[in-house]
Amino acid sequence: MNDLYYDMIFKRKSFHTFKGKKNLSESELEEIKNQIETLKPLEEGIKTKFKIVPRTETTCRWGEYAVLIYSEKKEHYLQNVGYMGEQLDLWLASKNIGACWYGMAKPKEVPETDLEFVIMIIIEKVGEEEFRKESGGLKRKTESEIWSGEDPEKIASVARCAPSAVNSQPWFIESRENALYVYQVKGKWGFMMRNAMTHFNRVDMGIFLLILEVCLNQRGLSFQRELCPETAKKQDQILTAVYKLEKE
Q1: At residue 15, what are phi and psi to the nearest 5 degrees?
Q2: pLDDT for position 192
Q3: Apex CA 41: angle with CA 163 and CA 157, to 5°?
Q4: pLDDT at 46 over 60
Q5: How does residue 210 score in pLDDT terms, banded at 50, 70 and 90?
Q6: Are 128 and 96 in contact (CB under 8 A)?
Q7: Does domain 143-247 have CATH number 3.40.50.150?
Q8: How far is CA 3 from CA 125, 227, 248, in A?
Q9: Cα(247)–Cα(24) distance, rounded to whole angstroms?
Q10: Distance from C-alpha of 15 to C-alpha of 12, rounded to nearest angstrom
């Protein structure tokens, strides 16, 4: 599965519009539900729920279906949602199902659940030709803007492809002493308010950690991950995780 995820990093893209010409079949919807059951959490012990509903049951204006993601509210729960959701995002690309992380919409009805609605992923069947063919056209920060220190495995060139809210790319890695220190940094806000960006950037960091780990696994680098305690302080740079590396 890691090889599949790695290949899909270069294929996936955020679909901000859909043509509405293709529909997901019942068997495809069932396959998505089965895939959701295989998603691995970033942090064990956080209850989550993924629910597929017609897009018309949300306030979003495009797409055929929405994958609603709910979570128990615990430390690292937003990062956990990003980490799990990005696994689904990459898998969907392998099935030629277009997807878009969509933060500015909500379900129309309040669900009967004690979990908090976090974010949704809008999905629709698309043609393979509509996906990205290479990462060269991505509007992303340069490698030097997201990485300091040695990078002999060229991880930054791939990790920089991770998606984020309003393309804010709120991450930075410091490589030193056989470890990677992953920071959440201040990104652009776009049209979002500060509180909304704080929320979505933590989801973004979970997305980024998944992409980073896929890269590490593909390069044959084993690691031990340590998530750092969350802080409420409004700092421009917050340590999110430390990866201690060991060459296999």
Answers
A1: -90, 105
A2: 52
A3: 35
A4: yes
A5: very high
A6: yes
A7: no
A8: 23, 25, 17
A9: 42
A10: 9
Q: What is the mean pLDDT of the chain?
A: 92
Integer CA distances (angstroms), 105 to 120, 148, 154, 223, in order: 8, 36, 36, 36
Amino acid residing at 242: V
First-to-last CA distance in the chain? 19
Residues 119 and 85: beta-carbon distance below 8 Å: yes
Residue 216, token pair as written in the block: 């590490």
Partners of 88 in the β-ladder: none
CATH of 2-130, one of 2.160.20.10, 3.30.70.120, 2.40.10.500, 3.40.109.10: 3.40.109.10
**Rounded CA separation 101/121 (Å):** 4
Domain locations along the chain: 2-130, 143-247
What whole-number distance in Å separates Cα of residue 53 and Cα of residue 32? Answer: 12
In this prediction, residue 150 carries a pLDDT of 95
DSSP string over the chain: -HHHHHHHHHH--B-S---------HHHHHHHHHHHTTPPPSSTT--EEEEEEEGGGBS--S-SEEEEEEE---TTHHHHHHHHHHHHHHHHHHTTEEEEEE-S--BSS--SSSSEEEEEEEEEE--GGGS-S-STT-----HHHHEES--TT--HHHHTT---GGG---EEEEEETTEEEEEEE----TTS-HHHHHHHHHHHHHHHHHHHHHHHHHTTEEEEEEEPPP--S--SEEEEEEEEEEE-
Take residue 4 and report the two structure tokens written for it: 């599949």
Q: What is the pTM of this model?
A: 0.94
- Given pLDDT bands bounded at 50, 70 and 90, which one contains residue 113? confident
